[in-house]
Design brief:
This protein has 20 helices and 15 strands. It is an alpha/beta fold.
């Protein structure tokens, strides 16, 4: 549920905050008071495009913030975990700070992008404006509505269809890519045979390149190594009086001569003995290393040739010997396929036919579910339309077969007739703007029990209607608000009278500046606003009485 909306420095709004409640939240106000700004601020918070002209004069940045209270929802929680966003006591706060050239969006304090906000918002709020009504003219929307009504069963089978279709398309693309004439087959076989033979003849061993590189490094730096180790041995050996071994031996003799006089010297004596042993072992190893160190020109030549061969293969087939051997396996397998090309293609064609059958079966299962759902949905929508003052309405859901796609093979279209004696026709040929808004409301009414989204916003739901029809729309909004939080912007008193919470949007001039504000009204102020909506220029007691009568009528209907 949407708990609150906070807007600062946006268009004519300096700063305003509104707390919404359960049930039907109605927003009214004079033309030009800023109702569209308020709706626009919600869309901005949810990632809509920001125009710097929307910044309030003199302000460097603007802020829009939505606060939601959330029931336990595994899908929503999973989405928040995916984006590393914490849930704070069942509260989600979406904020967006706006300024010329950039904006920063956050969810529960974590910075997010507009795509992430939209994915999260799909579980929180559903906005129906004029654009949404117009979407009914697109047949794709009709299929979405039917599947929404069909529920989880349809979703599950639809996922099967998507998987089957994806595998079918992949196989079809593979067959198209593999189709070769005899000349192309032979050219590819010749190249593969050469490459396979080239790698086979190299007799590569994993790790040999690293071993060869180490030996190559040693041989190419042999002279430098010899000189350095010889100098080291000169300083540590016993070949000269200044060598470390001789110096250490003299040091040990001096310590030995006084050890008997102090027990503490035993530890120092032991350390010197260990040092002498270590140095002797070091000198022995260096002497042995120098005696074995020699440059073998023939060995160096063979190592260099082998490394050149390995590096040439790396340039062609991969960065490591493992990559080269993997390329060999792939090329060898491909060569085997080409050696028996006809059988290989026949196998692919057989797989494609089997996958086409699997796709057909999944599509048929989905179609059966849709047809069953369409029968029920047709009856429910017809009743809902009648409740919205569509007299003698006829409504049908036409389903025709088309080529299979990831959505199945059903082509779905809503057909309607609003006049007696006229045959049903597609919505785009019949429905006016006002009728589209009522049809959308009928759909939302029917889907209310199946819709997991808590908050619905209706803007321009009352376009092109009045009188008895307005009462019917108000009654249906009340039905939807019994299972959802509904926020509705309206100019019709019949709808406003049904409010559980009524908010007034007003524009005032203060200190030479025009400001838009929103506040909740009740009791006398609510009746005054209803009287204004009823067309009263002067709010007289008679006008208040009319408003009170309308409000009482609405309350009786709600009861």
């Amino acid at each position: 549920m949407l708990l609150g909306l906070h807007v600062k420095n946006l268009a004519l709004i300096e700063e305003t905050e509104v707390e919404f409640g359960k049930g039907l939240n109605i927003l009214t106000g004079e033309t030009g008071a800023g109702k569209s700004i308020l709706m626009g601020s919600v869309n901005l918070a949810l990632g809509a495009r920001f125009d710097k002209e929307l910044l309030r004069d003199g302000a460097e940045n603007a802020l829009v913030e939505l606060t939601f209270s959330c029931e336990e929802d595994a899908r929503l929680n999973s989405k928040l975990e995916e984006f590393d966003i914490p849930m704070e006591d069942g509260i989600i706060t979406i904020s967006r700070r706006l300024q010329a050239g950039k904006s920063i969006s956050k969810v529960n304090g974590e910075t997010v992008n507009s795509k992430q906000i939209k994915e999260i918002a799909e579980y929180l709020i559903d906005i129906h404006g004029q654009h949404e009504h117009q979407s009914l003219l697109n047949k794709k929307k009709h299929l979405e509505i039917l599947d929404a009504y069909a529920g989880e069963e349809a979703k599950e089978v639809c996922r099967e269809v998507q998987g089957a279709y994806r595998r079918f398309v992949e196989l079809r693309k593979l067959i198209q890519a593999e189709e070769l004439d005899s000349a192309a087959q032979q050219r590819e076989k010749d190249l593969l045979q050469f490459e396979v033979q080239e790698i086979e003849s190299a007799r590569l061993v994993v790790g040999e390149d690293e071993e060869l590189e180490a030996r190559y490094r040693k041989l190419t730096n042999g002279k430098k190594i010899s000189e350095a180790m010889s100098e080291s041995y000169r300083y540590t050996g016993n070949e000269s009086d200044s060598g470390a071994s001789n110096a250490l031996g003299r040091a040990l003799r001096y310590v030995n001569s006084v050890c008997d006089y102090d027990e503490e010297l035993a530890g120092i004596q032991e350390q010197l003995i260990q040092i002498e042993d270590l140095l002797s072992e070091y000198n022995r190893q260096v002497s042995s290393y120098l005696s074995d160190l020699e440059f073998d020109g023939e060995d160096f030549y063979h190592i260099e040739e082998r490394l050149n061969e390995i590096n040439r293969l790396k340039d062609k087939y991969g960065n490591t010997i493992e990559d080269i051997l993997e390329a060999y396996e792939n090329k060898h397998a491909r060569l085997q396929k080409l050696d028996d090309y006809d059988a290989y293609m026949a196998e692919l064609e057989s797989k494609l036919k089997n996958q086409e059958k699997a796709l057909e079966t999944a599509c048929q299962s989905l179609s059966d579910i849709r047809r069953k759902a369409a029968m029920n949905l047709t009856d429910l929508l017809k009743k809902a339309l009648e409740n919205l003052n569509f007299l003698s309405v006829q409504f049908e859901i036409a389903m025709e077969r088309k080529d299979a796609s990831e959505n199945g093979f059903d082509d779905v279209e809503f057909l309607i007739s609003t006049n007696p004696g006229e045959k049903v026709k597609p919505l785009m040929q019949v429905a006016s703007g006002g009728e589209l808004s009522r049809i959308m409301l009928a759909i939302k009414t029917v889907l209310a029990s199946k819709d997991d989204i808590d908050t619905l916003i209706f803007d321009e739901i009352d376009a092109g209607i009045s009188g008895k029809t307005a009462w019917k729309v108000a009654e249906q909004l009340n039905v939807v608000s019994s299972v959802h939080q509904v926020i509705c912007i309206t100019h019709l008193p019949q709808i406003a009278a049904m409010a559980d919470q009524h908010f007034l949007i007003e524009k005032k001039a203060e200190d030479g500046t025009t400001l838009t504000n929103i506040r909740q009204v009740c009791d006398r102020e609510q009746l005054e606003e209803l009287a204004r909506l009823l067309g009263s220029d002067n709010i007289t007691e008679a006008a208040i009485s009319n408003a009170a009568e309308m409000r009482n009528q609405a309350l009786q209907q709600k009861a």
